[in-house]
C-alpha cells in the first residue's frame, strides 16, 4: 500500500505539503492540490480519515436540515444533495438528512440548513453548538450560500424588455419578508424604474395551479402584450398553461420567465425561459465552506452569491425550442 511519503515523492513535494492538502486544502494553492491529488490517484493512496477523526475528536458526519416542503416531481434538492455529497466524499464525510426535531440527535461535526425563514432563525439555531452554514440568503448574519437573486430577476426582466414587452408583471412567492424574495423583487423593480415602466406585482403560494388561475384572470382582460416574470419555474409552468388555454402567441402577445432551471423549465410546452442557478456547484461550495468552518473551529465564513445564467427559450422568443 502506498504511504504519504510515496505520494510526496511522486508529487515532488514534502510530506508536510501532502498532509496540508489532505487536512487543510483551503491553505494550499489549486496547482499544488492538483499535483498531489494526481499523485494520490496514480498510487491509489487513500488517506486514513478514520485515524485523523479519532485524533481530532471528529465524527466525519455532516447533517443536512431541510425546513420546507419537498416536491417529489422537482429534483432541485437532488441536485443540491449531489453537490454536497460529492464534496463531502472527498474527505470521507457522510451526509445525514435530518428534521427540525432530530437535528440534535447523534453526534456530528457541522450542519447545513436550507429553507430557514428569517423569523425562524433564532428558534432553529437555538442549542446548536457545531458550525452551521445556511443555504439561502438571510439577514441574520448566518454564513450562507445562494444564487444572486437580484441579478437573476434583473436578467429576466431586461430580457423581456429587450424583446419588446412593456407591460411586465412580477409573480412572487408569498414570502416577501424573506431575503431571497426581496432580492428578486428588487431586481425586477430596478429594471422597471430604469425604463420608466409601471410596476405590477402579485404574491401567491409557490404553486403552478395558483399561478395559472391568477394569470388567467389577468391575461383574459389584457389589451396589450404581457410579460410575466415568475419567481419560480413551478409558477411559470402554470402561467404557460394559462396562456396556452387562451391561445396566446409566445414571444408576441405573451412572454413568461421562470427561476431555478433544474427540471420543470424543460417539460413545459413551450420550454420556459428561465434563470438557471448552478445548484450542484452551490452544493459543493456549501460543503467546502462548512468543512473550512469546521477546520477553523467555527470561524466566520461570510456569504457567497453565485451568478445565475439566463436560458432563453420559446416562452419568450417565438420559434425557440
TrEMBL record:
In terms of Gene3D superfamilies, this protein maps to: 3.40.50.2300, lambda repressor-like DNA-binding domains
Q: Does the keyword Transcription regulation apply?
A: yes
Which key words are in the record?
DNA-binding, Transcription, Transcription regulation
Q: Give the residue range of the signal peptide.
A: none
A GO molecular-function descriptor = transcription cis-regulatory region binding
| Chain ranges of the HTH lacI-type domain | 2-56
What is this protein's name? LacI family transcriptional regulator
Q: Which organism is it from?
A: Listeria weihenstephanensis
Upper classification of the organism? Bacteria, Bacillati, Bacillota, Bacilli, Bacillales
